[in-house]
Amino acid sequence: MGLLDSFEKGLERAVNGAFAKTFRSGIQPVEIASALRREADIKAAVVSRDRIIAPNSYVVRLSADDLERMHGLGGALTEELHALMNAHAKAQGYSFSGPVSIVLEADEKVATGTVRVNSGTAEGRVSWQAVVDVDGRRHSITKARSVIGRGSDADITIADAGSSRKHVEILWDGERAMMRDLGSTNGTKVNGTKVREAPLPTDTTITIGRTDLVFRVVPVAADRPSGANR
Question: Which SUPFAM superfamilies match (predicted)?
Fold first, then answer.
């Protein structure tokens, strides 16, 4: 099953039940989803070997009649579009420089049954933030050296009896990161392998005792969005 098929099935659920309608003419919800996906693919930009940035701000331009039909679906359509765009980005390995925004607007220059999409992202150079996800909580790495362990004086404290008070440190220079074990009692694993130190590419799992920590490098929104017409 292709990705577009997944988009279509998701949107079919959005227009079922209370939202079920027959659009005898005009734009179809699945066509909006497809247009958004294409816009993301066209505008996605490779900023490094492991990072691809896609626009996070989308304006969907429709005829007045089509916009009225889409508004008849209420919030279900936009919620589904947001969910599907995030799923598409995850499948393609895209990152966003901020929360995804999708707005539907009327445009007298757009004919009934067609759709145009404008997109934009943060201006200027995208900045990146190192973070560590632990048990559903995200901790930002804001220093060149951050200590993780059981002790209350650690920069990131984990409640795991199998960890030492100062178990590991993460070194971050704003672009690259590495992990170094601080002579812990039970050792440290990186992606399942016990090591003393190791580089940390994004999405690396560090295991301390029974706790898995995931190191990631995530985009940070810069200035206001700037639009770019397709």
Answer: SMAD/FHA domain
